Amino acid sequence: NHEYYHGNVEEWFTFLRGCNIKVLHNENFRLTTGKGESVCMAGIDDLITLKLHMHGHQMNPRKALAGCQKSDLVVLLAHQPNAARYVLSDPATNGNVDVVLSGHTHNGQFIFFVPFVHLANAWTHGLYWNVPTNTHILVSAGVDFFGPPVRTSGYCEVVRLTIAGKS
């Protein structure tokens, strides 16, 4: 979400593409595993874009998921876990996402933030299962921090995710 606060978001996208990073700006791409299974990787603009009203930038999960097939394993990249709540509550998109990957919460980062993080977010850290939509939500603490380079709660992490296929 910081690309919307620091500098020009289009310049950030250009920079990331120049680093050979695929930017998923309300879009997806499909890939095939070694076993021939299809995976649809979709990414949405940050949740904050619903309030910022920036031309050409507004979280649009319907657009991001367009083209994903029912037979695909659908993985949605959504920076804020509350974006997952938004996507999973929309009748047009719920039930169409198998896994949501999020971060944003930094697992509280400072001990005095932890209660507020839990109050403000649908999911805060770890792996969750949303029964009504049959969706896994994984929220990572990440490797960075917000504000001062200090953590008094939680930890930094790099998550290794192995997807065995759609069941």
Low-confidence stretches: none
Distance between the termini: 32 Å
Kindly name the structural category: alpha/beta
Provide a count of the helices.
5
From N to C, what is the helix and strand string? HEEHHEHEHEE
Q: Radius of gyration, Cα only, in angstroms?
A: 16 Å
Q: Please tally the β strands and state the result.
A: 6
How big a fraction of the residues is strand? 15-25%
Main beta sheet: 6 strands, mixed
Helix % is: 10-25%
Placed side by side, the strands forming the largest sheet appear as 1-2-3-4-6-5
Q: What's the average pLDDT? A: 81
Shape: globular
Summarize the model shown:
The chain has helices at residues 9-18, 49-52, 61-65, 81-88, 114-120, and strands at residues 27-32, 38-43, 73-77, 99-102, 126-130, 135-139. It is an alpha/beta fold and 167 residues long.
3D architecture notes:
It comes from Mesorhabditis spiculigera. Residues 1-107 form the Calcineurin-like phosphoesterase domain. The structure is a single chain. This protein has 167 residues and is α/β, with parallel strands linked by helices. Helix content is 20%, strand content 19%. It is built from 5 helices and 6 strands, in the order H-E-E-H-H-E-H-E-H-E-E. The chain has helices at residues 9-18, 49-52, 61-65, 81-88, 114-120, and strands spanning 27-32, 38-43, 73-77, 99-102, 126-130, 135-139. A 6-stranded mixed β-sheet has the order 1-2-3-4-6-5. The termini are far apart. The model has no long low-confidence stretch (mean pLDDT 81).
